[in-house]
Amino acid sequence: MAKNTDRTHKLKIESDEFRKIGHELINSIADFYETITERPVTTSESALDLASLLTSQNLPEAGTNPAELVKNARKLLIEHSLHNGHPKFMGFITSSPAQIGALADLLAAAVNPNVGANILSPMATAIEKQTVQWLAEFIGVPGWSGLLVSGGNFANFTGFLAARTAKSSHDLKEKGLQSLPAPMVFYCSTATHTWIEKAAFLFGHGKNAIRWIECDTDNTMNRQKLEMTIIEDISKGLQPFLLIGNAGDVSTGAVDDLNALSVIARKYDLWFHVDGAYGAPAASLPEFHQLFRGLEYADSIAIDPHKWLYAPLEAGCVLVKDQQHLLKTFSSHPVYYNFEESDGDNVLNYYEFGFQNSRCFRALKVWLALQQAGREGYRQLIREDIALAEQLYHEAEQHPDLQAITHNLSITTFQYVPKSVSLDREDVNQLNKQLVEVLQKGGELFLSDAVILGRYCLRACIVNYRTTPKDITESIDIIVREGERLLSAMK
Question: Which helix (H) or strand (E) holds 237?
Fold first, then answer.
């Protein structure tokens, strides 16, 4: 009988060494958290600069000591990254990752469950199911189902395909789009995220199937134009099937009148999908109940915990009122999947509900953070982010060289318009465009941009539990100082 011995291989790390490396890494991460406010938001290093820092340009033939590898990787990432956990990172919609989420990802990777089938991930599946239930309850749609995905694109894609399956007059799995008697068309505002264009061409409809509905001055969908467009499409023999509402658009944070849109969706038998990837967590605030009224009438909702619930990337989620629509869209049973279990309806095999078969354990970091903060803890954080964005709006409004443009949820837009010179609109737009570029490379403050009614604006989105009122005031000073430098260089 062969003796049972461990295999010798290059990936093995002995227990004592693993503990030592792990402890040193955790200590370094703790130091990073303590000093992040003192670090630049980002560096100005070029791609070539960064490539030159890598230890080897060729794949190594021999192995390297793991302690040295981890130490080097730690240095590279901490000293040469954009730090979206920095209190003055206000660009795009990437939040400061919760510390418990970082620990959760370590634990999830160590156990490495494949959350595609219950038999492969019994506890991870149970945790994901509860996480989805809690997210639905948190935003006011208790009892809904769904699953965790990579982010907003795939959350919205999942809702899109469920809508198509539910509203198609034919069996698309068997016959495909070419079997349809009329092209399927769908409706969204001009403020909708670019995921909708990807969905249109990736899923075979083409961009011409999108009905872009103009927005009113508050950046919400013009409902009169929407209904006129639907009626016109029906008169042409087309098949409307989907209406998309925004619960916090990416440029300004505006929330469509979801209740009014839900009425239109029901009237014309459209699936009503809400893109709440950014803004849906604010629906948990009682004072915003009226703003989000109608969310409960949606058929599907996208929400990204890695945005306003402070989860480390990646963590998106799609919620559906009826999970059978996901099963009808994504479920398949090849002979090599032996995942049938006697527990019946109590078992979820998540590969049947979305795109992925092999799925990482995204839910753990969300599940732990929801318990650490609780409902009220999250409400407090969201309220504070909104208050900081409002402070930024008011300080911009009061500053003689700034013009406040919009404030919705935790997004504020404004322009640098120096009072010392007379500039036309195009000159102001170009000046602000250059200012965004300077700020993004400078390392003190990271903003993004938005174009609103022809104005090129500086845009700040605060989904950051490290940002304080002091950071807002200092940001105003940085913006004006850098704007004055640019103006002097132009003269």
Answer: none
In degrees rounded to 5, what are phi and psi of residue 451?
-105, 115
Q: Which domains does the chain have, with CATH numbers?
A: 113-360 (3.40.640.10), 373-490 (3.90.1150.170)
401-404, long-range: CB < 8 A, 24+ apart: 401/480, 401/483, 402/476, 402/479, 402/480
* DSSP per residue, 56-106: -SS--SS---HHHHHHHHHHHHHHSS--TTSTTB-STT-PPPPHHHHHHHH
Distance, CA of 459 to CA of 407 (rounded, Å)? 10
Residue 294, helix vs strand vs coil? coil
Q: Is residue 278 within a helix (H) or strand (E), and if so which, with residue range?
A: none
Give 103-111's long-range contacts (Cβ < 8 A, gap of 24+). Answer: 103/368, 104/364, 104/365, 104/367, 104/368, 104/369, 105/312, 105/364, 105/365, 107/364, 108/360, 108/361, 108/362, 108/364, 108/365, 111/361
Angle of CA points 447, 450, 455, to nearest 5°:
120
- Residue 328's SS3 state is helix
339-374 burial string, b = 16+ CB within 10 Å, else e?
eeeeeeeebbbbbbbbebeebbbbbbbbbbbbeebe
**Per-residue confidence (pLDDT) for residue 490, from 0 to 100:** 78
3-class DSSP state of 202: helix
List the structure tokens of 213: 């509905």
Tens digits of residue pLDDT in 52-70:
999 777 888 888 999 999 9
Burial 136-168 (b: 16+ CB within 10 A, else e): bebbebeebbbbbbbbbbbbbbbbbbbbbbbbb
Amino acid at the residue 342: S
CA 12 to chain centre: 36
State if pTM tops 0.85.
yes
Report the pLDDT value the prediction gives residue 219, as an integer from 0 to 100: 96
d(CA 458, CA 405): 9
Residue 219, token pair as written in the block: 């950046």
The secondary structure of 334-379 as a DSSP string is -TT-----TTGGG---GGGTSS-SS---THHHHHHHHHHHHHHHHH
Distance CA 315, CA 167 (A): 28
Instruction: Identify the pLDDT of residue 333.
Output: 81
- Coil, helix or strand for 149? strand
Name the stretches of the chain with pLDDT < 50. Answer: 342
- % helix, strand, coil for the chain, step of 5: 50, 15, 35
Instruction: Give the model's pLDDT for residue 316.
Output: 98
Cα–Cα distance, 264 to 439 (Å, whole number) = 43
